[in-house]
Amino acid sequence: MKLVRTNRPNALDVFNPNVVNRFFSDVWNNFEEEFTPAMSNFKPGSEIVKNENGFEVKVSLPGVKKEDVKIELDGNVLSISGERKNEHTENKNNVLRSEISYGKFSRSFTLSADIDRTKIEANFEDGMLKMQLPVVEKALAQTIEIK
């Protein structure tokens, strides 16, 4: 007897472990978001862009105040932490539905050795944290003349 698989586009391939793992992962993630919103933590999105002077790191922090954000540099690890506070602490029973995550957050980035740690700059505006991470001048790309 030979097992025959049909190729139906909408069918769940129960023989493919990737599909099964993704299915249960999606179910658990949706369950967690829908039924346990207090347990879901706020995880801000980030973007790292390489530019001519080094790197720019952007972290999206909507609803977070500047004074609730902390940036630390420990060795080669840059850590950003803080908290997005819930506005509805007193009238919690009046909130019918909330899809906004609140709570403490922490993001860490490992820096390469060529980052000039003394010249890192941070700016917080309109819910966006922007940090400039320049590289030391010796590490910048250069053109070598052929003799």
Could you tell me the CATH topology label of the largest domain: Immunoglobulin-like
What's the CATH first level of the largest domain?
Answer: Mainly Beta
By DSSP (H or I, 4+ residues per run), the number of helices equals 1
Q: What is the CA-atom radius of gyration, in angstroms?
A: 23 Å
Mean pLDDT, as a whole number? 78
Give the H and E element order: HEEEEEEE
Number of strands: 7
Please mark out the parts with pLDDT under 50 across 5 or more consecutive residues, or reply none: 35-39
Summarize the amount of helix as a percent range. Answer: 10-25%
Tell me about the biggest sheet?
A: 4 strands, antiparallel
Domain tally: 2
Task: Report on the architecture of this protein.
The chain is an alpha+beta fold. It folds into 2 domains: 13-41; 46-87 and 102-139, Immunoglobulin-like. Helix content is 13%, strand content 32%. The chain has one helix at 17-35, and strands spanning 46-51, 54-60, 69-74, 77-84, 103-110, 121-125, 128-134. A hairpin with a 2-residue loop joins strand 6 and strand 7. It is extended, with a radius of gyration of 23 Å.
Question: What characteristics describe this protein?
Answer:
alpha+beta; four-stranded antiparallel sheet; 147 residues; Immunoglobulin-like; three-stranded antiparallel sheet; 13% helix
Short description:
This protein has one helix spanning 17-35; strands at 46-51, 54-60, 69-74, 77-84, 103-110, 121-125, 128-134. With 147 residues, the chain is an alpha+beta fold. The protein folds into two domains: 13-41; 46-87 and 102-139, Immunoglobulin-like (Sandwich), CATH 2.60.40.
